[in-house]
Design a protein that fits this description.
Layout (H helix, E strand, L loop, with lengths): L1 E8 L5 H9 L17 E5 L4 H10 L4 E2 L5 H8 L4 E6 L4 E6 L9 H8 L4 H8 L5 E3 L23 H10 L3 E2 L5 E2 L9 E6 L5 H16 L4 E6 L1 H11 L4 E6 L8 H6 L17 H13 L3 H18 L2 E7 L1 E6 L2 E2 L15 H6 L1 E2 L7 E5 L15 H7 L7 E3 L6 E3 L2 E11 L2 E10 L13 H13 L6 H4 L2 E8 L2 E7 L5 H6 L6 H4 L30 E7 L3 E6 L19 H23 L1 E8 L4
Parallel strand pairs: 2-16, 9-10, 9-11
Antiparallel strand pairs: 1-25, 2-24, 3-13, 4-13, 5-11, 5-12, 6-12, 7-8, 14-15, 17-18, 19-20, 20-22, 21-22, 23-24
Amino acid sequence: MFRSYAVLLILCVTLNTFHMWVASSVPEISKYPINGPRLDEILFVYHATPEAAVAAIRKGDIDILSDIFRPSDVHVLSEDLNLNITFSQQTHYCYVAFNTRREPLNDKQFRKALAHLIPREEIASKLFEGIVVTPMLYETSPAFGRWHNPNVATYPYNPTRARQILASGGYGWDKDGKLIGPDSKPLRKVSFISPTQEEAPTSYEIAKLTVEEMKKIGLEVYQEPLSFDSLLTKVLTERSFDIYFLCVSNLGKYPRWLYDYYHSSLDVPDGDNTPGVRDTELDRLLYTFRFESETEEEGERAVWRAQELIADLAARVPVYSRYQIEAYRKGLEGMVEHRGVGYFTSGAFWTYLNLSRVGLPAGGKVKVDVGGRVRTLNPLYGSGAYEQKIITLIYDSLLASDPKTGEIVPYLAEGWKLQNLMVGKSKVQKITFKLARNATWHDGETLTSADIRFSMEYLKQNRVPAFISSLERVINVSDPDPYTLEVTMNGTSFFNLIDVGGIVIIPKHIWKDVSDWRTFQPDREPHPKVKGLTKMVGTGPFILAEEKPGEFWRLRANPNYFKRLPAVKTPVEGVGLEEWSLNLRTFSLIAVPILLVSIGYLILRRRVSTRI
């Protein structure tokens, strides 16, 4: 976004010119956090196939579509005069992962050989026409700047090299060309799990191409397509797989996720260490990076060495990074590009706080494609990108991040203080948060430091996998008064503030009686006191008003949001944009002549949008 300013000496002005100025007068965002939401309602809609989602936005059934990955869809939507298209770089990658707990995949040499069989260039050109993805050899990509180690092992497509590695590892081939193990016995049949062709056609084809390459070297392997929720259950919860293909996104400013993906403590059901990596030296390095580095320089040394070990293990092999391509119908404004994320997808919080319809600075509705199957809206369990689109608009955290720089900004916590202390011979850090005094839960209860304390203790005591690493070093949490929270952490890592400041905040009065956090479905249980609400109670800008799981989720603006906009007159219910515009014109007949006579000139401000 850029601004252009023109100072015009005006002796007369048309009615239409004045109306255009009013319609585009939403202020430039110059500082975060910002207030909102501007919209009255967001309707998230599920479409079973990419074809259905593309057809819906072209017909006007939805306003916003993210994660456009098929070149044919990019071409069609780019030619639609009713749509705008955005391209954003993401901290994203897709990968092939191996279950290191199972033979023969527990053999590092075997995994390295298979890693050389992923035809990245063919995938990029054949499936994506070279315009949607970039082939990727490094898991921690150059997009992470100083945190990227370029001197690690990589596995470019090379079937000859794959055969050499297998031969040097004692593998061989029988008279029919089938692979046999170092013990001269035939290898068992291996399955490659992928999404279905209907849900994710390109992911399905990628798995198919890779399986064909593996068959060429004599491996008995077959593709096993599963619905997305079944795939996640097998991989994340049950750990029941040989090989799978998935993608991750919204990885943040720092490669903190390496700890979650490779530390042995996260090799638990629903933990992110799905391959089952267990390496003592890697654990030590990741722990040093994540929890013991007091400066970025210390963290860089540890994580560079960790990347070398990770690459050598070949448990996850990157395939490509994809641009975030999104489409939205014209007539919307206020969208914000989030670095490494995009404008509208999971993680694009500020967009939905600031989004509005042109000419309607407050009020209005939008319909958004949710992107895929939503497994659960449990904020402790719903870690997928699709459910996070909804969850992050309902629940808040203590801190947020600037969408352009990634720097920390205040949110539920209006301020904080860090104190490095010595307890005996141990270094500890005390973080004191001062909370917003006007934040309330959706059911009207006041948010206090007791809720924050409860959230941290509940997540830590239950070892909720999504938050294990964030709360790993928390020693004590206290709430000396309703708007002050004190967190004491073991060590003085520069990640401490980010860790505790980013956890989800849940209401004590709802969750204190929840004994099994995994099976709790807050959106399916009615609120015990407030009619029309469920137990899906947060402090966020939107409230879950209605849902039909598997079809749609209706969110309505939180009228008591602590970051709500100052009072802005909006159209009354039932009066459309056209009638509202007439009211503006009526006002202009009186206001404009008075303004012109008194000052003789008008400053016109016009927002200029650029495509990326």
